[in-house]
Amino acid sequence: MIVSIFSVLSACSSTEEEKYVERPVEELYNTGLAELKERRFSKAANAFDEVERQHPYSQWATQAQLMSAYAHYQNQKYEKALAALDTFIQLHPAHPDISYAYYLQGLCYYEQLSPVERDQKMTELAMNSFQEILKRFPDSSYAKDVKLKLSLLQDMIAAKEMQVGRYYQTRKRYIAAMNRFSKVVKDFQTTAHVPEALHRLVEVYLALNLKEEALSTASILSHNFPTNNWYTETYLLMKGEDFREKNSEGSLSWFNKIWNDQS
Fold this sequence. Notes:
The protein has a domain at 21-95: Tetratricopeptide repeat domain (Serine Threonine Protein Phosphatase 5, Tetratricopeptide repeat), CATH 1.25.40. The protein is 76% helix and 0% strand. It has helices spanning 2-19, 25-37, 41-54, 59-74, 78-91, 98-110, 121-136, 143-170, 174-187, 194-207, 211-224, 229-239, 249-262. The termini are far apart.
């Protein structure tokens, strides 16, 4: 038994010595590249991490941080990739590849997007990373792809706001619903959710007996989305309301105009 224990301890010691044996920086880095090529991403990340551990002050160490993050990303180990990228971004804000670091950071969040029904924290984090690219590196080679992804992300956030707004509306929490719908109109103007948000605002204003605000919002919907189905819904909704007590000629003239145009 004693012999067996010593054998195990000796094997462990041998393994540890082999693991931490110092190797030339070029050899470690090239090993990482070779492992990447063979799609052995975990081994590639270990090799790049070893570059930084054994040669922390070499010019290879900085690039190895980024390559380790890329290997973890390819291996779908997003938390490890994000940890490496956070370190890289904090330590090397002026690095020539800093735009790629933000892009890869955004991709790590992007790959973890949740359905609209669930929390959209990852969506917001991805948006922050991609917006940083457009803000600081608008001419980078990643800008075109970032713009496409941002459109999808903004649509997801707007959809979530609409879902929450409708939830509040059905429970007659009109102020909370109004805030959600207003946010979509104000902050997500390029998404397909704006017409519905305007219609829901009209519903909320009418529920609160704010007919002047309802008329104004319906006017915006009429002007910007005259052929949208949500405008039709708004038209039918407004047609059933009594505005005779209103003295605002501006609102009433618009109200009469759209009715005359539709008649």
